[in-house]
Amino acid sequence: MSHYTHSADDPARLYKDGGIAALKQLDFYRPSSELVAHEAAIRQAFTEKPPATVKEAAERIEKLTGIRREQSQVAAFMKKLGEVAQSGTNPSQSRCGQAKSVCR
CA distances (Å), 22 to each of 2, 16, 44, in order? Predict the structure, then answer.
């Protein structure tokens, strides 16, 4: 995968290759997770049986895809998945069945 970033040396080349439109275009490099390729399978597995913790989610993702990620990376990926990631039991809810702020 190639990516291009503008620098002070290439406006003339950019203009020559693509005109004003090329000068206005911003092509920032945005890496994507390898997990994105497995998103449908992960979503289906988590919909059928939501993980109770991020640790469990990380273990299940590794078993499902063969890709190991740290818990912080799995949490960020789960956040992108949306509601599926939040449908599992939240440890802060285990004490009284409601959100921690309500239990206080």
Answer: 17, 9, 41
